[in-house]
Predict the 3D structure of the following.
Amino acid sequence: MDFLYNNFLSDFFVICMKGMHNIFADYALGIVVLTILIRLCLLPLDLKQRGNQAKMAALGPEIQSLQKRYANNPGQMQKKQQELYRKMHIHPMLGCLPMLIQLPILFAFFGAMRVIASEQTIALMLDAAQNGAQSVQLTPFFWVHNLWQPDSFIGGNASILPSAESFLSYVQSNQTFIQPQTLALLHSQGLLDFSTGVMQVPADTYNALTTEILKANGYWNTVTNSVTNMNGYLILPALAGVALFLQQKFNPAAAQNAMTSATAQTKEQQEAQGCTNKMMMWMMPIFSVFICATSNTAFALYWFVSSLYAFSQMKVVDLVKKAKAKKQEVSVS
């Protein structure tokens, strides 16, 4: 499954994000801008899909008439529906195309954010080891103390800095992107150990360094000898789930509905499809909350902005269409 988020598209997004950081000097702002640019590139396809779905919805009465007329001959009914779609220049499968394009982008952005998070975390630890903890500053985002860790207060995901095990995973999973000189520096600073023939992170050395970084950034209580804050409060994952739910709930012509009306289905099959669609309307937002809560905040920010933009765009397009329709009614009257 690694190929889904480790490919040429994720490499392209890494380059884009670094370019955005060079322009804005802020990764969070760069993520917002890049997300909007991606959605704008998909805008023509989205508009074409919505126009196609509107045509299909307008043909509802004719489709129902065909279904009644050829109730005992599903094959003929399917043939007549396809003829009607060709006559009206409707492409039933177009409803799936935006999703087929957006999913690879989602996976690729996940991979890109993982690479950048690893690079930033390794650079921070090296800087602290070489120049002292006072020389480094974490990357905050509003209520989140470290953009490269999850916006969470639950379990192992709640840490402001990754554990020794997570840091080792960062290094191992991104070795192809890490220069040999960087690995050598990590080893020289005692953050990596190869004495057993297997790459390891000495927990004592690593934990001592993370403690000093947290102290330098004001996140360590010297009285209780423990961290004073969790990294976040699950706010961004929750907002991502809400935005995705709104996007699905208020989409008047979802791709699933278009597919249902495009095929010859019995009443029982249509009811079953409707139940599936309702279940997915809840399951996908819950899934998005889980993914965003276990991924770094940078990826959760992308998911939230992308879903919110899609919902906002949908409402704006609807308002424009209503305004045009009202204007035409006034001109006719």
